Amino acid sequence: xxxxxYSPYGIISERLKELYIELDKISIDKHLLLxxxxxxxxxxxxxxxxxxxxxxxxxxxxxxxxxxINHDWDSALEMKKSSGFLGSQMLCGHVEGxxxxxxxxxxxxxxxxxxxxxxxxxxxxxxxxxxxxxELYTCEFNPYAVKFAQETFDKLKEKRIKIKSGPALETLKKxxxxxxxxxxxxxxxxxxxxxxxxxxxIDNSLINKNSLVCxxxxxxxxxxxxxxxxxxxxxKIMKKFNSDIAKNPKFHTVMLPLRDGFTLLKLND
Length: 269
Ligand SMILES: C[S@@+](CC[C@H](N)C(=O)[O-])C[C@H]1O[C@@H](n2cnc3c(N)ncnc32)[C@H](O)[C@@H]1O
Hints:
Blueprint: H1 8-25, H2 30-52, H3 59-70, H4 73-78, H5 93-106, E1 111-115, H6 121-127, E2 135-140, H7 143-155, E3 161-165, H8 168-178, E4 184-187, H9 194-203, E5 212-216, H10 233-247, E6 251-256, E7 262-267
The structure holds S-adenosylmethionine (SAM).
């Protein structure tokens, strides 16, 4: 089983390959086909080249990636073992995992908050840079994903990852009572709830001026910027969220073309 990609690069190369097959069937100038092939090569090359030139995953991360990709998530849903859709395309993957790991190191984070855990890959990547007395709280509402990840963390004797089972907004409310300030936050759960996650984090002082917030899937497969992509309620919310945070003078934001879009946010002084 292979990992599906929802990044614009992956979508572009899939569509160009389909176009190539169709154009190859009719008599078309070979020079145009060659041009198209060069576009396929460029679009296909970006992510695989990034992966080849990024530090390798640890054995633990490689094993977790493999077991997530090989797991039959669809059957779990059909057999009502899983309470919602889960799929291997949810994995942030090798390059983003290493990016989160290096950000954890640069920020010298000791307390991390993750919103959206799935099989535990991004949590495990960040925890690899966490000091021994550090803690990573991760929110997940699907009991099937919680069980899958907890088994991996137990097998690795990884006690610094605290899974907070249940809806993220409720968990954030509970965490605010504990008065924890997180050095690093990774937002990767329900896309339409991103504005609420960020508001709740800020309103409850779960971050301060030194904290870094990482926000995943801000491209939403290109739906936020391409007029040709089918819109959804989530994409409309994400589009407004992206522009609101970029315009807000309280924040310093940078959007990066990593996988499906990755935004960094800090509170301004
Ligand atoms: C994209 S996946 C996370 C992937 C993970 N961060 C990684 O890169 O390996 C999103 C996860 O968030 C969970 N989720 C979605 N909405 C949630 C919510 N409101 N509260 C808690 N978990 C949620 C989903 O069940 C899913 O497992």
